[in-house]
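User: Could you write out the 3D structure of this protein bound to coenzyme A? I've included everything you need below.
Assistant: Certainly. Input first, then the structure.
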Amino acid sequence: MAGVALQCSGPWRFVKLRSLVRLSTIPSLKFHTTASPMMGATVQQFEQAKSKLSTLKNDPGNEVKLKIYALFKQATQGPCNTPKPGMLDFVNKAKWDAWKSLGSIPQDEARQQYCDLIGSLVEAEGPSSDQMAAEPAGSGTMYKTLLLTTEDDITTIKLNRPAKKNAITTEMYSEVIAALEQAAKDDSVITVFTGAGDYYCSGNDLTNFKLEGGGVEEMARRGGELLRQYVKAYIDFPKPLVAVVNGPAVGISVTVLGLFDLVYATERATFHTPFSQLGQSAEGCSSYTFPKIMGSAKASEMLLFNKKLTAVQACELGLVTEVFPDSSFQSEVWTRLKAYAKLPRNSLAFSKQLIRSMEKERLYAVNDAEVECLIGRWMSDECFSAVMSFFQAKAKL
Ligand code: COA
């Protein structure tokens, strides 16, 4: 790691990039050489990522280094299987925690995330002259809470907080808006939205409700504006947008599905919008799209009475395009998408825009009305008590 001087502080100052590079050269890796690139990186891609790690000139910071360590361990050894280090063994405890936080994500997935992360770090340092000639623009951009990659004419936006079931923080809302804007402008034909780990997304991160000066009203207004922009980014998205629902989906990750062009789900996925349970109300234009897609009686069961749908039920109601067996979900879906991405790009984009343009003004109005209603809900005692109950229930566990 020539040229890397680490300026770390705090108990993790000993997590050295050099040691991560050394760790990455352990030869005893057991991978399936036939893995599809989209299901998980191939051995060659993983090896390339390991060598790229040693070319980094800047220290990416402790948090990222721990993530690299954890993904490497998960990719090569599977879920954390070593005893928890003692409280005073700060460095090994931090490393163990990082590995443990990946839960049971498969080795394929960890390998892919490792490659994506290293790729985005390299990208953030600016392209070398060879890369400038070879790499397509826009691939591997650095986001803190997302993985954004472009491959085979498909840009993939992956929510990347698997330990929190991909709950969407305020930072993540802003990053998704930026990622959608980036994907709208890049050369890809199709954009895919998916989640890392066993969940697609557990909806709004309930810690977003914490007050940071300014009181409840300001928190609600700020949250409302962010939500309005978030949903608008989906309404305005100009290319085919596909949800690859890799596991359970909750709240806003379900409500915006009416703004996607295709929704592919694993049979393990469920679809839940527990708004009234949380003293809240519908968003993501679902108060308009859901009755239109499934009829008002079925939409009310979901949006008013918190009915959780299985993937098959959601497909029968038209919210989901197709359901796949969990074991073949990734391979079947990506084979399909790669074929679709070979279709003429402009024809796809113009047709998508035609289909959606008739509705755009109405969707803006629905979004505004839903946001106004929610701002009121977020200031209500009903909402406050419901969010408190969630955290109290967690604290009792
Ligand atoms: N907001 C904040 N934190 C969340 C979250 C959310 N929406 N969803 C999950 N998490 C956190 C949990 O608090 C937990 O954190 P911890 O490990 O620090 O305790 C971690 O993610 C894992 O979740 P956990 O509850 O342990 O997993 P589970 O499999 O038992 O349950 C859920 C998963 C999604 C069913 C459950 O976490 C849940 O009900 N979350 C709230 C979903 C929700 O109401 N979303 C808003 C809709 S409007």
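Residues 164-165, 167, 202-207, 250-251, 274-275, 278, 280, 394 surround coenzyme A (CB under 6 Å).
User: Perfect, thank you.
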